[in-house]
Design brief:
With 75 residues, this protein is of the alpha+beta class. The chain has two helices and four strands. Strands 1, 2, 3 and 4 form a four-stranded antiparallel sheet that branches. The protein is elongated, with a radius of gyration of 17 Å.
């Protein structure tokens, strides 16, 4: 499945599956999750890792312009 939308992969490291699921739900409120891996035990043995593939929201051009202007003034 290919898409033109910018994508990111988020890695969640948590103490247990419940924490990982809570983090995934919170991230899902801000981003559109396209895929979530099954929780996997960490190699170190402490906790679990979950990966999320997510679409980035469209950039707010006005906010980007403001940030660029602010950066120029700081320099």
């Amino acid at each position: 499945m290919t898409t033109d939308k910018p994508m990111i992969r988020v890695r969640i490291v948590a103490d247990d599956v419940d924490q990982a699921n809570a983090a995934a739900l919170a991230i899902g409120q801000a981003l559109t999750i396209t895929r979530e891996s099954s929780p996997r035990p960490r190699r170190s043995g402490d906790g679990v890792t979950v990966y999320l593939d997510a679409e980035l929201p469209p950039a707010d051009r006005g906010a980007l312009d403001s940030a660029e202007q602010r950066d120029r003034r700081i320099r």
